[in-house]
Amino acid sequence: MYDIVVVGAGTAGLSAAIYAKRAGKNVLVLEGESYGGQIINTPDIENYPGIAHISGFDFATGLYNQATALGAEVKFEAVREIKAEGKEKKVITDSGEYDTKTIILATGAKNRKLGVDGEKELTGHGVSYCATCDGMFYKGKDVAVVGGGNTALEDASFLAGYCNKVYIIHRRDEFRGDIKEVERLKVNKNVEFVMNAVVTELKSEDNKLSAITVHDKVTNGDREIAVAGLFVAVGQVPDNNRFSAFVDLDEKGYIVSDETLTTRTPGVFTAGDCRTKKVRQLVTAASDGAAAALAAFDYINANW
Predict the structure, then answer these.
(1) pLDDT per position as a tens digit, 88-102
(2) Does the pTM exceed 0.85?
(3) Identified catalytic residue from 58, 99, 133, 248
């Protein structure tokens, strides 16, 4: 039986594993995809205290290597369900079952879709949710980024170094992201801001994206922009419904918890972007992971 099973190998999950191992507990981390979560696709991190500059891949790899060097076990298996049998918990994956004293849910969040007709069919054929993954496919071409947060701004900055023209489309008149990122984009001559606008239509030729229609919310007019690629960065949504029998979810599907990281089920904790909170940043994900691990440590010592 494990002391702690962590569901998710993003920043919160791996931070939890590090703190749990340092507290002397045996830990299993389960991850259905790759380690690192969303941050692994960020080209540059400049807002983590003590680290002036690092790539998301290097940051995530450092976390993974630190956790495994301490003895945390990591298995790449998708978690389907959790069960509580008295004090004991059971985590069921697509490959097996694992008994544990406590669980930390650190499942993060997934990319939100635009909800425009044809989006699903054109994903991988002009529509992408990861600029660092797919940006090089559009070298020398015209592309657009949709969103107003740091991810959208970072995507646009990254793409501006490879693409002929980058349109950044935002539904409001101001960005939510860092002013520093906005100012950095303004000096790029191949970046055009399309504000107070939403994408309403995707056009294709030969099953590939060829253009988008953008609706101006101020003038009420429409504009067609020829692009080969559309990068969607309009936020994230959690994926917690499979745990709803043991944790409360808010109206958006985030796990309800306070700063103690506890849920309504004793021995089940949460951390990171999957939980209810105001600020979702790299540093707060790491903080959540540490706090959840220490809360699980206290629970185990008090109940086992």
Answers:
(1) 999 999 999 999 999
(2) no
(3) 133
